[in-house]
C-alpha cells in the first residue's frame, strides 16, 4: 500500500515550496515553506502574539497514533482564495486547505486529504500565543485586557481541542483554549469517521468499543476561523463570524440571544399536571421569572410520549399550556435527558430497534430455544464488565435477554438468563447469531447508535414543533457518547434539533462544547438535592462564575429547591448571591410545597424584587462585592418605582458554651455581653452545635437577666437553629435542610440599642458533646439601591 501511495505522489506534478502571509482585520498570519507558523500578529498595536519557545504547525496529521507535522507548503491563488497544500513526507500524504481573508476573520477549510486511509485525524495547531490573562476554554478566545485572539470551530465535525483520545471526547468544560506557561494555546481537531474504529467510549468507561464508519465523513470540510481584535470588540466579532459563516445564531424576539434581555434570566421548574398549569403560571408571573419549565412530562424518552397521568390531553394539553404562557409573556419549557431511551419506549419494546447502541458483540455458539436459561457465547469480552453494566441486557434478533453474569472460563456462558426482557418475545436463535451487549446507564436506560440518534433528534424537534414548547435543556447531553462518536455526536444532536425546530427556542445544557456555544442560551450547573440553599454545591456554583466570565456565557447559579419549610432568610441569602454575581437561577417549586409553605407569597415577592433590581442594574459595584460574600445576609424591600432599600444583616462576635463539670447546684450556663448597635429590633440569632457526636437540649437564652427564651428542641451535632427575620425559628439539619419549625411559648423579645448581657444554658449529652456557638444578629441601616439609567 505504501509503495502505491509513493508512486501516485511521484506521478503528481510537483508543488513548489512557498511561504504565505494571510491577513484578516487585525490578524496577520505568516507561514513558512514547511507549513510552520512563524508570526501571528494581532491586536490594536499589531504585535506578534506567537510564543517563540515552541513550534506551531498550521495543521498536524494524526496517523496510526503518531502526530505528524507538515514538511512542505505550496501556495496558489484560486477562485478568490488562497490554496495551501501541505505535504507530510513520512506519510506520503497531502492536505489542501482553502484560506479566505475576510474583514473580521480568516477562515481555513480542508478541501482535500489524500490518501484518506493515511489520515486518521487532523489537529489545527495547536497555536501557541503569549496571551494568558484570560483563557476561554469553551469559546476558544484568549485575552489580556487589551487584545484578544480567537479560534472558532465552524461546523460540528470540527471540535475544540487537540484530539484528547481515540473517542474524541472530554469531560472538561472546554479545551479549545488551554493555559500554558508561556500564555496559552488555541486548537481544534477533526476525526476521519469514514474508517471503522475502536474507541474507549463514554470517556474511557467501555473499552475497545467497535464503532462503524460514517460514509463520507472524513476530515474534508473541517473548518476554523481565526481572528484578533480589541478585547472590547470580541462579542461583535463573534456575531459577525456567526452571520458570515452560517453558524447557529439563535434569537429571542428577533434579538441575538447574547444581547437579549432574556440573557441570564431565571426560571421556575416544577412537576405539575394539566389542571395545575394556571396555578403554576400565576406563581411564575408573581415571581417575575422568565419561564415555567416542567421537570418531565414524558412517559418515555426516545419517542417523547407524553405522560397521560399528568397531561390527559397529551401533546394538545401541552400546546394549550404553551399558549397560556405565551399570552402572559412567559416561556414554557420541558425537561428530558436528551437521547436516553427508556425501557418502556417503542424503541425497546415490544420489538427492540436494531439501532440501539451496543458496546460490542459476540456470536452464539450453539442454537437455543425460547426457554434456554444459559446461553453460550464465543467470547466474554463485552459481557463481563460488572462495574458499568446496569441492566445486564443483550439483544439477539428481536429479543432482549437479561443475564446475571458471564462465566469466567470457557465455555463462556451468560448465566441465569431472563428471556423476553422488557416485553420482548422469547424465541429460538441459531448458532452464529450476533449477541450484542446493549449500552446502558444506571438511570435504567439504553441509548441509540449514531444513525438512530439522528432520528431521536427529529422526534424531539417534531415534539417541539407540535407543542410550541420554547424552552428546552440538553440535559444528559453525554448520552451522545454511547454512539462511540465522542463529542461529535453531542454537537450533531444539538444541531439536528436546532435546525429542525421552526420557532425561537431557549436552550440550556448540561455539558459545554465549542460549536454548541453558538446555540446555547445558558449553562446552569448546580443541583439542590443534597442540602439546603447554603450547602448544596455552593462553592461549585460560585466557581462556575469565573468560567462564565472567561467564555462570554450568562452567569447562572444552578437549581435551588423551594420546600414547604423554606424561609425568607434562606431565599434572600440565595438572591443576594444572584444579585452579586449578576446571575440567574432555576427555582424548583412544586405545587404541594407552594401550597404548604405559609411564606410562599413573601418568597415569590422577594424573588421578583431581587430579580427586578438585578436586571435594572440597581446595585453599586461596592454593594455587589458584599452581595457576593456568602458570609453576608441581606434583606431587600421595594420603596418606589425603580428604588429599593437594601439592609445588610449585622452580627455579633461568636459566643461559645461547652459542657463542663460543675459541683452539684453550681450554675452551668455561660454569660456574654455585647454592644447592640443596629437599633431596636426583635431578637435574631444563629445557634450552632459544633463538633462532637452528642446533642444539646433544654436550651435557654436569658436576656439582661429577666427575659427568657426557651428553645424546646434537641440540637444534634452539626445542626443549627436560626431565626428567619419574621419571628419564627427553624432547626436545620447537618446538610442545611430545615428539619423542623420550632414553636416558641412566647414571642421573641425586642432588643434596644446598647449593652446587653446574654446567658446561654443547655443540657448536653453524648460521649463528646458539641459546643454551642451563638451569634446575635440585626438589620443594619438601609441603603438605597436605584435602577441604573439606560
Labels describing this entry:
disordered N terminus; 790 residues; TIM Barrel; globular; 4 domains; 12 helices; 56 strands; alpha+beta; single chain; Beta-galactosidase, Chain A, domain 5
Summarize the model shown.
With 790 residues, the chain is an alpha+beta fold.
Describe this structure in words.
The chain contains twelve helices and 56 strands. The chain is an alpha+beta fold and 790 residues long. The chain folds into four domains: 15-245, Beta-galactosidase, Chain A, domain 5, CATH 2.70.98; 259-341 and 449-518, Glycosidases (TIM Barrel, Alpha-Beta Barrel); 538-631, no CATH class; 655-779, Jelly Rolls (Sandwich). Strands 42, 43, 44, 47, 50, 51, 52, 55 and 56 form a nine-stranded antiparallel beta sheet that branches. Strands 7-8-9-10-20-14-13-12 form an eight-stranded antiparallel beta sheet, with helices on one face. Helix 6 (450-467) packs parallel to helix 7 and helix 9 crosses helix 12 (621-628). The longest helix has 18 residues, at 450-467. 46% of the residues are buried.
Amino acid at each position: 500500500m505504501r509503495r502505491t501511495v509513493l508512486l501516485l505522489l511521484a506521478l503528481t506534478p510537483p508543488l513548489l515550496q512557498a511561504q504565505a502571509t494571510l491577513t484578516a482585520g487585525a490578524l496577520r498570519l505568516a507561514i513558512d515553506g514547511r507549513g510552520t507558523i512563524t508570526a501571528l500578529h494581532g491586536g490594536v498595536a499589531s504585535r506578534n502574539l506567537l510564543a517563540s519557545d515552541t513550534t506551531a504547525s498550521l495543521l498536524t496529521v494524526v496517523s496510526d497514533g503518531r502526530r505528524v507535522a507538515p514538511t512542505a507548503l505550496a501556495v496558489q491563488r484560486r477562485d478568490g482564495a488562497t490554496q495551501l497544500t501541505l505535504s507530510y513526507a513520512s506519510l506520503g500524504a497531502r492536505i489542501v486547505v482553502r484560506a479566505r481573508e475576510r474583514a473580521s476573520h480568516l477562515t481555513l477549510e480542508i478541501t482535500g486529504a489524500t490518501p484518506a486511509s493515511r489520515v486518521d485525524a487532523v489537529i489545527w495547531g495547536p497555536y501557541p500565543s503569549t496571551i494568558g490573562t484570560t483563557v476561554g476554554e469553551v469559546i476558544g478566545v484568549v485575552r489580556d485586557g487589551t487584545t484578544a485572539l480567537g479560534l472558532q470551530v465552524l461546523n460540528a465535525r470540527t471540535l475544540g481541542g487537540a484530539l484528547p483520545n481515540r473517542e474524541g471526547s472530554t469531560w472538561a468544560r472546554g479545551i479549545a483554549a488551554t493555559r500554558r506557561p508561556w500564555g496559552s494555546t488555541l486548537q481544534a481537531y477533526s476525526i476521519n469517521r469514514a474508517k471503522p474504529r475502536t474507541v474507549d467510549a463514554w470517556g474511557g468507561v467501555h473499552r475497545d468499543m467497535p464503532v462503524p464508519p460514517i460514509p463520507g465523513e472524513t476530515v474534508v470540510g473541517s473548518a476554523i476561523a481565526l481572528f484578533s481584535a480589541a478585547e472590547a470588540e470580541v462579542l461583535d466579532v463573534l456575531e459577525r463570524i456567526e452571520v458570515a459563516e452560517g453558524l447557529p445564531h439563535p434569537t429571542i424576539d428577533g434579538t441575538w440571544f447574547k444581547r437579549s434581555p432574556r440573557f441570564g434570566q431565571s426560571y421556575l421548574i416544577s412537576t405539575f399536571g394539566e389542571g395545575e398549569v394556571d396555578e403554576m403560571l400565576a406563581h411564575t408571573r408573581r415571581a417575575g421569572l422568565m419561564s415555567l419549565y416542567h421537570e418531565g412530562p414524558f412517559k418515555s424518552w426516545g419517542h417523547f410520549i407524553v405522560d397521560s397521568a399528568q397531561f390527559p390531553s397529551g401533546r394538545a394539553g401541552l400546546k394549550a399550556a404553551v399558549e397560556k404562557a405565551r399570552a402572559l409573556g412567559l416561556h414554557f419549557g420541558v425537561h428530558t435527558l436528551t437521547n436516553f431511551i427508556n425501557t418502556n419506549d417503542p424503541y425497546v419494546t415490544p420489538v427492540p430497534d436494531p439501532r440501539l447502541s451496543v458496546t460490542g458483540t459476540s456470536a452464539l455458539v450453539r442454537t437455543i430455544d425460547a426457554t434456554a436459561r444459559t446461553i453460550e457465547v464465543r467470547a466474554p469480552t463485552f459481557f463481563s464488565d460488572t462495574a458499568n453494566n446496569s441492566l445486564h441486557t443483550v439483544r439477539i434478533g428481536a429479543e432482549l435477554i437479561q443475564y446475571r453474569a458471564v462465566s469466567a472460563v470457557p465455555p463462556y456462558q451468560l448465566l441465569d438468563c431472563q428471556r423476553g426482557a422488557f416485553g420482548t418475545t422469547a424465541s429460538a436463535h441459531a448458532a452464529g447469531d450476533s449477541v450484542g451487549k446493549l449500552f446502558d446507564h444506571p438511570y435504567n436506560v439504553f441509548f441509540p447508535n449514531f444513525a438512530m440518534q439522528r432520528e431521536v433528534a427529529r422526534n424531539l424537534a417534531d415534539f417541539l414543533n407540535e407543542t410550541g414548547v420554547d424552552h428546552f435543556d440538553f440535559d444528559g447531553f453525554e448520552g451522545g457518547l454511547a454512539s462511540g462518536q465522542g463529542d461529535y455526536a453531542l454537537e450533531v444532536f444539538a444541531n439536528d434539533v436546532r435546525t429542525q425546530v421552526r420557532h425561537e427556542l431557549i436552550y440550556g445544557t448540561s455539558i459545554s462544547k465549542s460549536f454548541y456555544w453558538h446555540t446555547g442560551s445558558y449553562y446552569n450547573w448546580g443541583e439542590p438535592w443534597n442540602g439546603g440553599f447554603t450547602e448544596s454545591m455552593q462553592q461549585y456554583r460560585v466557581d462556575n462564575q469565573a468560567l462564565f466570565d472567561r467564555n462570554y456565557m450568562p452567569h447562572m447559579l444552578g437549581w435551588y429547591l423551594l420546600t414547604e419549610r423554606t424561609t425568607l432568610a434562606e431565599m434572600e441569602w440565595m438572591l443576594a448571591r444572584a444579585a452579586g454575581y449578576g446571575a440567574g437561577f432555576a427555582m424548583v417549586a412544586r405545587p404541594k410545597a407552594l401550597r404548604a409553605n405559609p411564606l410562599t407569597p413573601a418568597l415569590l415577592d422577594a424573588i421578583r424584587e431581587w430579580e427586578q433590581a438585578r436586571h435594572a442594574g440597581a446595585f453599586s459595584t461596592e454593594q455587589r462585592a458584599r452581595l457576593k460574600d456568602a458570609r453576608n445576609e441581606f434583606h431587600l424591600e421595594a420603596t418606589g418605582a425603580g428604588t429599593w432599600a437594601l439592609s445588610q444583616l449585622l452580627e455579633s462576635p461568636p459566643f461559645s458554651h461547652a459542657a463542663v463539670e460543675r459541683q452539684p447546684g453550681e450554675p452551668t450556663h455561660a454569660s456574654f455581653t455585647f454592644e447592640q448597635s443596629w437599633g431596636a429590633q426583635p431578637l435574631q440569632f444563629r445557634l450552632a452545635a459544633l463538633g462532637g457526636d452528642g446533642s444539646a437540649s433544654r436550651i435557654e437564652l436569658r436576656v439582661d437577666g429577666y427575659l427568657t427564651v426557651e428553645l424546646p428542641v434537641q440540637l444534634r451535632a452539626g445542626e443549627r437553629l436560626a431565626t428567619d427575620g419574621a419571628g419564627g425559628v427553624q432547626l436545620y439539619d447537618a446538610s442545611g435542610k430545615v428539619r423542623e419549625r420550632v414553636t416558641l411559648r412566647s414571642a421573641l423579645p425586642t432588643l434596644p440599642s446598647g449593652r446587653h448581657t446574654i446567658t446561654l444554658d443547655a443540657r448536653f449529652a453524648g460521649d463528646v458533646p458539641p459546643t454551642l456557638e451563638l451569634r446575635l444578629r440585626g438589620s443594619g441601616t438601609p441603603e438605597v439601591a436605584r435602577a441604573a439609567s439606560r
